[in-house]
Design goal:
Helices cover 77% and strands 0% of the residues. It has 13 helices and no strands. By secondary structure, the protein is mainly α.
Length: 287
């Protein structure tokens, strides 16, 4: 039987590292579970049908978050409609068309820098440019455009990294069959990197749902109930802005925890839907 050549010192080091990694996993999972359980335990008892299906009334003192839920959905849809074509298109150009590698590296560095800028700076720039310079005033469309700029580096970089994982032999095989450049990208490359695009969408949705600082400057905090067209050109608060308003300005912590629970449930639902879409495209690609 062959003896192991690992020294006792190396075995002790490996055991310590395994223990530290296992401890890290336990701490991380415990924090996540504690946060979810704590928020849901504090928020779910305060969620009522009246809270979810009505708008607030300052005359009767009734509190409702239906406008905030709709504004959140409006701003998610509007932001994704802007940022996905821009981010995916930029990634495709940088990875498939751009010849100047130095310029590509500069753009990649700029995108990584943009992703690290605090959101309140985006809010200030969005207020000055979209609300004042373009005269959009405080509105959901101004907030959506600001969030699109915030999430553009995320979509672009995740798509770009996913494009790099598509084997070059796939492209060469398609070119060998006589397909043009755009046809190869549309029918071979993009279906092969749909996982990365959906991952970028999930990350962007999470940032949109959790954003408040930038929206306070650009979207405002009105609780009016509007349709999607009227709502996009009007001031409106999302769920995170409403949570800040009720917790900080009015001291309604029960309502704040209820909104936090709704946000968490909404995030889980959206992530589940995007995961199902991801599996659908993956199944189609494997056929």
């Amino acid at each position: 039987m062959k003896k192991s050549n690992i020294s006792p010192k190396r075995k002790c080091y490996n055991s310590i590292m395994k223990l530290l990694m296992a401890l890290s996993v336990i701490i991380t999972c415990s924090l996540v579970v504690f946060l979810i359980v704590y928020v849901l335990a504090k928020g779910l008892p305060n969620i009522t049908w009246e809270l979810l299906s009505t708008k607030p009334s300052y005359v009767t003192g009734k509190i409702g978050i239906l406008p905030d839920i709709l504004n959140t959905l409006y701003i998610i849809i509007a932001t994704l409609l802007v940022v996905i074509p821009l981010g995916v298109g930029a990634a495709v150009y940088l990875n498939e068309y751009a010849q100047n590698k130095k310029l590509v590296s500069i753009i990649e560095y700029a995108a990584e820098t943009l992703s690290g800028i605090p959101s309140i700076i985006y809010g200030l720039v969005g207020m000055l440019f979209f609300c004042q310079f373009l005269n959009m005033k405080t509105s959901l469309i101004a907030g959506a455009l600001t969030l699109a700029i915030m999430n553009l580096p995320t979509i672009m970089r995740t798509t770009q990294e996913s494009l790099k994982t598509v084997p070059q032999s796939y492209r060469e095989g398609a070119f060998g069959l006589g397909a043009g450049k755009w046809r190869v990208i549309r029918t071979v490359v993009l279906p092969g990197c749909v996982d990365g695009i959906i991952t970028g969408c999930i990350l962007s949705i999470g940032r949109i749902l959790g954003e408040s600082a930038a929206l306070l400057f650009t979207a405002g905090f009105a609780h009016a109930l509007n349709g999607i067209i009227q709502g996009m050109v009007s001031s409106g608060s999302t769920l995170t802005v409403a949570l800040y308003f009720y917790a900080k300005e009015q001291g309604e912590f029960e309502v704040a925890f209820a909104i936090a629970a709704v946000l968490m449930i909404l995030t889980l639902i959206i992530n589940l839907v995007t995961e199902l879409i991801k599996r659908y495209f993956k199944k189609r690609r494997d056929l």
